Amino acid sequence: MDAAFTAEQDEMRRTLREILGKRCGPDEVKAAARTDTGHDRELWQRLARELGLPGVAVAEEYGGVGCTPADLALACEETGRALLPSPLLATAALAVPLIAALGTAAQRAALLPPLAAGEWTAALAVPGPALATALGLTGENAPGDWAGGGRAGGVQARAAGSGSAGSEPVGGDPAGAPAWRLYGEVAQVLDGHSADLLLVAAHAGGFARSRTLLFLVRADAPGLVRTRQPTLDETRPQGRVQLRDVPAEPLGAEGADPLPALAATGRTAAAVLAAEAVGAADRALARTVEHVCRREQFGRAIGSFQAVKHRLADLYVQIQAARSAAYYAAWDPDQGALALAQALEALRATAGEAVQLHGGIGFTWEHDAHLYFKRAAADDLLFGPVHRLRAHAAQRSGLFTPTSGTTGNEKAAV
């Protein structure tokens, strides 16, 4: 494996950092996050037009750039540095891979080009606080209660016969007109309040024939009600999605099992999130170093005190280790969960120290140190927690599985 970055990758990072440096200061980030959509539409279109950012990992035949998920991870390291509020994660890291992996030829041809061009955005709606489980990050994503479980709660799907009167196909194939109806509620959907297309995980088959399927739902579908939710991290907007007998189209061939694709998407998304967290931690540390070199106490810069130097040095080592793990996971997504755990831990430690070392101003809403701390805490809640990421990775690797020759005492020790 050649881990060196290409000239094209370095140029993409340089251009993206330059654009975001001019358009994503702390005040601009807060203003964009507080708009109705939760992001700066003009900036999103510019990133799509000049860099092809939403379609970085989309095949060229569908209008994308045709790069690898590693390129998307490198781009997200830069968006993480700026805490950019954008639909990039929900669209490019979660929805697009699922459509590419599961969609029929007609669905891919109809949906991927507008998503790659930034004309549409998409969101993955998973019932309950179970996104990390559905993506296979903190547990096996076998069919179960996270999608409704055949009981009350979650989202339920029922077949509606040979099509729904007045409904149009989501994926562009007239033969695939919506023949299912969805009902239920998803309380936390990344960019769910503003996405043009929803991928909804729903339970079908009742309790006797329990199965989880993914469905495509248009933003203008009758019976769909969406409201923006207040969130801990305003740069990660979320919406409540209510489905009141909403027409939906199965993603891919009807009856196809989406769970392996969800797990594969989760591994790639974890690598992307890890790179994003590393970018945020790196920027938070740089701002803290700048502050302690400028702020004076007892006639000297506080950064000259040995205790402060040691704290900053420890953070630097932790971030560099997390960066190495994130880069490795970008080439080998199977390591994504561990890289994400290390990156989230590094971001939380760095953000906490940033608040402390900025002194009194670090605790104020006017300063942006709290934005990094909230990003760390919110990502830990959405995609973790860290200890569960590590525990599931250890379980998958067989780290705690006793061998056949292990004695009783050795098993107890394990």
- Per CATH, which architecture of the largest domain? Up-down Bundle
Strand content: 5-15%
* Rg calculated over all Cα atoms: 22 Å
Number of helices: 13
How far do the termini sit from each other? 34 Å
Tally of individual domains: 3
Number of strands: 9
Would you identify the regions where 5 or more consecutive residues have pLDDT less than 50?
A: 162-166, 408-414
Order of helices and strands: HHHHHHEHEEEEEEHEEHHHHH
Helicity, as a percent range: 40-55%
Describe this structure in words.
The chain has three domains: 7-116, Butyryl-Coa Dehydrogenase, subunit A, domain 1, CATH 1.10.540; 122-257, Butyryl-CoA Dehydrogenase, subunit A, domain 2; 261-397, Butyryl-CoA Dehydrogenase, subunit A, domain 3 (Up-down Bundle), CATH 1.20.140.10. The protein is globular, with a radius of gyration of 22 Å. The chain is an alpha+beta fold and 414 residues long. It has helices at 7-23, 26-33, 41-51, 69-82, 88-102, 105-116, 131-134, 259-294, 306-331, 336-357, 369-383, 386-397, 408-413, and strands at residues 122-125, 155-159, 180-190, 197-204, 211-218, 224-229, 238-250, 296-297, 300-301. It has 13 helices and nine strands. Helix 1 (7-23) packs parallel to helix 4 and helix 9 (306-331) runs antiparallel to helix 10. The strands form two sheets. Strands 1, 2, 3, 4, 5, 6 and 7 form a seven-stranded mixed beta sheet that branches. A two-stranded antiparallel sheet has the order 8-9.
